Amino acid sequence: MGLGDDLMVTGYAEQEKKKYPEKQVVVGNLSEKKIYESPIYLNNPNITPIKSIDRGKPIHFINYHDKNRPYIDYQNSNNNNLHWNMNFSQIPGKLYFSDDEKNKAKEIVNTAVRQWE
Predict the structure, then answer these.
(1) At 35, is the secondary structure helix, strand, or coil?
(2) Between 93 and which of 7, 13, 35, 37 could a Cys-Cys bridge form, CB atoms 3.0 to 4.6 Å apart?
(3) What residues pair up with 62 in beta bridges, in sequence order?
(4) pLDDT for position 79
(5) CA pair distance 13, 26, nearest whole angstrom
(6) Residue 1: is its pLDDT beyond 80?
(7) In this predicted model, what pLDDT tens digit does every residue of 45-70 receive, in sequence order?
């Protein structure tokens, strides 16, 4: 999947974490038993990083991968032509920045403001 798909799944992760606050939420391919990581998931309080998974706690799996994207109508698609699921409505995703990233962004903005004055 690409970064756009990774960002899209963060909206689902937020909803699922609200439904199942006691569970660790992960994203991946359930049939292949793979959990995905992405730079988009960094600092996201709704997605448990692979390194932080506690096998003693329940896991909620979001089955979101190359062959399971809700915006594609797989029944009417083929290798040569994709059809979009026109009933699909995206839940907005979110990025979560570290304090270091936020501080660097403030420095960049402050430098630009000084140059514009």
Answers:
(1) strand
(2) 7
(3) 27
(4) 87
(5) 8
(6) no
(7) 999 999 999 999 999 999 998 888 99
Whether 76 has a pLDDT exceeding 90, the answer reads yes
Instruction: Please say whether the beta carbons of 26 and 61 come within 8 A.
Output: yes
User: Average per-residue pLDDT in the chain?
Assistant: 95
Is 46 within 8 Å of 93 (Cβ atoms)? no
Q: Using one digit for the tens of pLDDT, what is the confidence trace for 85-115?
A: 999 999 999 999 999 999 999 999 999 999 9
Closest-CA residue to 57 (of 24, 14, 33): 24
Q: For the residues of 84-103, what is the DSSP string, one character each?
A: B-TT--PPPP-----HHHHH
Closest to 96 (Cα-Cα) out of 15, 34, 14, 4:
14
Half-sphere exposure of residue 45: CA atoms within 13 angstroms, side-chain side: 4
Burial of 29 (0-12, 13-18, 19+ CB in 10 A): middle
Strands 24-29 and 34-35: antiparallel
Q: What is the CA radius of gyration of the chain?
A: 18
- Contact call for residues 93 and 44 (beta carbons, < 8 A): no
